[in-house]
Amino acid sequence: MSARSPLVLAIESSCDETAAAVLGGHDRLLSSVVHSQVELHAQYGGVVPELASRAHVMALPTVTREALQAAGVGPADIEAVVVTQGPGLVGALLCGIEFAKGFAFAHDIPLLGVNHLEGHVMAAFLETTPGFSPPQWPFVGLVVSGGHTSLYACEAPGRYAEVGRTVDDAVGEAYDKVSKLLGMGYPGGAAIDRRAARGDGTALRMPRPMLHKGGADFSFSGLKTAVAQYVEANPSSTEAEIDNLCAAFQEAAVDVLVSKTLTAARRLRYRQVVVAGGVASNRWLRAEFLRRGTDAGVAITVAPPALCTDNAAMIGAAGYARAAAAVASGVGFDAAALDAVATWPLGREV
């Protein structure tokens, strides 16, 4: 393998997915394996950090072995390792970091930490379908998940500036809380999306918090409260009425996300938007971004659903260039300063 295109192993364990991937280029994905903990945490209505960490310890050797086998390579063929360093649950992050350190130490190869949020953004650059066209820099990046709802001015690889964020709940957190309120379980995004597909979002009027104020910032606690108030006032709602409620909630949340993102693109004079994170797999969100982006003359790129939720492929995409540079420089294992970072805003160094 030449120094210009080394084989890189990527590890992700920031929350409740244990994942490994092998890349042979910044956009050349050779394998991607994800072990989900959804069933483990569903009985508790959300992620239990200690249980997540234990599950990561058990799953990391397996997902790594499966990723190597799927790529048709062995451990000795790997020339560098990249791992999620943050943000995320500290215990969960440490599981992946320490495993990655052991692998890199055993083979005396470079190990680099990657920002999980940058990983979500860079997932859009992975060539996974015929005719794929990568986004063009610069662009506005929207990261939407259970823990994050933020807008970034993405100027070039490694150059990001946050231009807006939620002032309370992340949109994925709002989905989970509404789902729990309606007795639909965890995770909430997929459950609400399914019910919303059967409902009429115009049958109820839900608020659009901060739609016309707050600049590029978001708020979703008021929308969640509106759902709670409806449920309290209508304790005997029919299944059809719950479907309408889910549709109205979802359409309100998506309206705010799309409107503020396109407004930010106009203000920055960017003609490209990248939508990333677990919530980006939502059916209505994807459809509305594509529809309204086309109307506004803004190109929209959303990664395939499998690369929207947490995965190691995106971590590899974000860290590949630095890993390749380390390999070309002949750098061996050196991870003395690599530690978990629970809070790590994209665009800032740790």
Outline of the structure:
The protein has 350 residues and is of the alpha/beta class. The protein has helices at 38-42, 49-71, 90-107, 116-122, 171-181, 188-196, 221-233, 239-268, 283-296, 305-308, 312-328, and strands at 8-12, 17-25, 28-36, 80-86, 111-115, 139-144, 149-156, 159-165, 272-276, 299-302.
Summed up, the helix count is 11
Largest sheet, if any? 5 strands, mixed
Radius of gyration: 20 Å
- Poorly predicted residue ranges: none
Taken together, the total number of domains comes to: 2
CATH topology of the largest domain: Nucleotidyltransferase, domain 5
Shape: globular
Would you state the CATH class of the largest domain? Alpha Beta
Query: How many beta-strand runs?
Result: 10
Strand content: 15-25%
- The side-by-side strand order for the widest beta sheet comes to 3-2-1-4-5
Account of the protein in words:
This protein is of the alpha/beta class and 350 residues long. The protein has 2 domains: 8-123 and 309-328, ATPase, nucleotide binding domain (Nucleotidyltransferase, domain 5, 2-Layer Sandwich), CATH 3.30.420.40; 131-303, ATPase, nucleotide binding domain (Nucleotidyltransferase, domain 5). 43% of the residues lie in helices and 19% in strands. It has 11 helices and 10 strands. It has helices at residues 38-42, 49-71, 90-107, 116-122, 171-181, 188-196, 221-233, 239-268, 283-296, 305-308, 312-328, and strands spanning 8-12, 17-25, 28-36, 80-86, 111-115, 139-144, 149-156, 159-165, 272-276, 299-302. The strands form 2 sheets. It has a 5-stranded mixed beta sheet with strand order 3-2-1-4-5, sandwiched between helices. A 5-stranded mixed beta sheet has the order 8-7-6-9-10. α9 links the parallel β9 and β10. The longest helix is centred in the C-terminal third of the chain and has 30 residues, at 239-268. The protein is globular. 53% of the residues are buried. The model has no long low-confidence stretch (mean pLDDT 93).
